[in-house]
Amino acid sequence: MDFRTPVKIAKSRFALNHKQLILSMGSCFSENIGGKLSELKFRIDINPFGVLYNPCSIASSLRILADKRTFSENDLFSHNGIMHSYTHHSRFSHPDSRICLKQINERIISSSANLANLDCLMVTFGTAYVYRLKETGAVVANCHKMPESLFTRERLSIDNIVKEWRNLIDILRKQNPNLNILFTVSPIRHLRDGAQGNQLSKATLLLAIEQLTQTIPNTFYFPAYEIVIDELRDYRFYAADMTHPSDTAVQYLWERFSETYFTKETQTLVNIWNKLRLSLMHRPFSAESSAYKDFVMQNLFKLEEIRKKYPYFDITNEIEQIQTQLTAINSI
After folding, report:
1. Cβ atoms of 91 and 49 closer than 8 Å
2. How many Cβ atoms sit within 10 Å of the Cβ of residue 202?
């Protein structure tokens, strides 16, 4: 007997590989999967505005990148001696406005430059609830612990989300006609909205994505939410806060993700790199021993073999580090 209800995922006609340029934006889940792709040397840019939760803020951020709009001091506000942007996560906040703006604008410039050449935009919606700043009516990406009285709270409608994203995709496709867009809904439950509120929010996101993927070419959906909620329906798959997926759950999602979107060549290269990456992290008891020098030489040989076979796989830094290691060993 099978005591699970596995979520069936058809093999996608869209595939990811190391030659492609990827942008991952959205909630924490986008960083979980994006981080694993980065570890495995995929060319990926992760959350240039920091973690974003709602479809409206993610869309606004992408419009900023498309317009190549940089920020000025007028876009910041001060609270408790810290400068913040309502468009950004608090990781960009800083006591010095110049440093805050430098961090913000460097990421915008870098990510904007890549937008027209992206092969894949990965988008993770977290919640359909938004906060609007009463003063301007604009949806904020982060309230930065400002008084609740400054905001109004609402749940976006399916139509709101679909209309916003149709218009945005038209803009992005004018710059980049071959752009693939991969949607997913974060499995992280927003219990601050209440159990029912969370379910209504997630349902809104799912129905909006369904409309988009059914009517817009080269848009896809990965069922991360369904896998955690239905297939892994046990609290052992959650972290201590009982809302975020555990490391085990994230690893399982990663396995389902990779088997869905990786070609055989990509998966082979991932397996080779995973083994070599662990070998490169090895620290010896005796760096002076001939055995360790042979070990380092073997790693260099393996890196060179990878570079010959997969010239698009960027391991320049790793080769330079090994060569520096060998120089240090030979000087002993």
Report:
1. no
2. 22
What is the DSSP code string of 239-293? -TTSSSBPHHHHHHHHHHHHHHHB-HHHHHHHHHHHHHHHHHT---S-TTSHHHH
Is this prediction's pTM over 0.85? yes
* 183 DSSP β-pair partners: 123, 221
Which region holds residue 293: left if phi is over 0, alpha if psi is between -120 and 50, else beta? alpha
Position 39 scores a pLDDT of: 93
Cα dist from 125 to 26, 138, 264, 306, whole Å: 6, 19, 29, 36
Q: Which domains does the chain have, with CATH numbers?
A: 21-262 (3.40.50.1110), 270-330 (no CATH)
From residue 36, how far is each of 30, 31, 176, 254 by CA, in Å? 10, 8, 26, 8
Phi, psi of 161 (to 5 degrees): -65, -45
Gap between the Cα atoms of 261 and 239, Å rounded:
26
> Which residue in the block uniquely carries the two structure tokens 């008084």?
147
Classify residue 45 as left (phi > 0), alpha (psi -120 to 50) or beta.
Answer: beta
Q: Is 21 helix (H, G, I), strand (E, B) or coil?
A: strand
Phi first, then psi: what are they for 122, rounded to 5°? -100, 125
Burial (CB count <10 Å: 0-12, 13-18, 19+), residue 324: exposed
What's at 295, amino acid-wise?
F
DSSP designation for 43 = E
Q: Is 41 left (phi over 0), alpha (psi -120 to 50) or beta?
A: left
Q: Which amino acid is at 52?
A: L
Q: How crowded is residue 153: how many other Cβ atoms within 10 Å of its Cβ?
A: 11
Residue ranges of the chain with per-residue pLDDT less than 70:
1-3, 284-288, 332
Q: How many CB atoms lie within 10 A of CB 206?
A: 18
Are residues 8 and 29 in contact, defined by beta-carbon separation less than 8 angstroms?
no
**Cβ–Cβ < 8 Å for 46, 143:** no
